[in-house]
Design a protein that fits this description.
This protein has 259 residues and is mainly β. Helix content is 11%, strand content 42%. Strand 14 and strand 15 form a beta hairpin.
């Protein structure tokens, strides 16, 4: 903001400055502040039996669209994890198939759908800074490491129809969501790892319809969901490291309607 003294300066200068402030430009004729924003980053992941190959090994802490192309014979459901402070890749690799790995990493998002053999799926995520791995624990294919560094400047932001906040231990989300394909912006406002399982409630029981890992604390994921009309619950079963209780037992659930 300009100080008040500038606002009462020479009229001609004031007009120029006011126009500059109003549109967010630097005062250069014809500049467009939206056009100056950097485009959403892209990260291509190609999966083969030998491992996952990334198109880049470093991205900025700004939205990135991750596309996953599966060249294996089975489905590949990509997930991301951030290494906890002081943890090495070797430690994660040695413990990747054990429960101890949850002490070494923080889950950092996933796709909603698995990439089918020969197919592609994608998700857009804003990763907080840190060292990460991309993997599918079920596929037992070697993970791919990458880093996220500080972003400078403004980036374009993905569009979404609804926003969901996942915290410790709650979901804050709309009471009603439209049926069919919609994009949810899911933000981790807590300090722990979380997941979001959307269950279709039938006769008092909950049936799983969609699932994704929530990004690391401070991160946001933009993912497309397609739900049929009905009553649903958003649930998190991730374990609390202090008590061992699943987050649902600590109150992390929310009811909503799709119509």
């Amino acid at each position: 903001m300009f100080p008040n003294s500038i606002r009462f300066a020479v009229v001609g200068v004031c007009v120029v400055l006011a126009a500059s402030c109003a549109d967010g430009s630097d005062g250069t004729p014809g500049t467009d502040p939206v056009a100056q924003r950097r485009p959403i980053q892209e990260l291509a992941v190609t999966v083969a039996k030998s491992g996952a190959q990334l198109s880049v090994d470093s991205i900025k802490a700004a939205p990135v669209t991750v596309s996953v192309t599966n060249n294996t014979k089975g489905p590949y459901h990509i997930a991301f994890a951030r290494l906890n402070e002081g943890v090495s890749l070797d430690e994660v690799e040695k413990n990747i198939q054990s429960d101890k790995v949850l002490e070494l990493i923080t889950v950092a998002g996933s796709t909603v759908d698995a990439a089918k053999p020969g197919g592609t799926t994608e998700v857009t995520i804003q990763f907080p800074e840190g060292d990460y791995i991309a993997l599918d624990p079920e596929a037992k294919i070697p993970f791919a490491p990458f880093s996220v560094t500080a972003a400078s400047g403004e980036y374009e932001m993905p569009e979404s129809e609804y926003e969901v906040e996942a915290g410790d231990f709650y979901f804050e989300m709309p009471k009603t969501i439209a049926a069919g394909p919609v994009t949810l912006a899911v933000t981790n406002a807590g300090e722990q790892s979380h997941e979001m399982s959307l269950g279709f409630v039938k006769g008092g029981s909950e049936e799983g319809e969609a699932f994704m890992l929530v990004p690391a604390p401070g991160g946001t994921a933009w993912a497309e969901f397609s739900l049929e009309p009905g009553k649903y619950q958003a649930l998190c079963y991730f374990p609390d490291p202090k008590t061992g209780k699943p987050h649902i037992k600590l109150g992390m659930r929310a009811t909503f309607t799709v119509k």
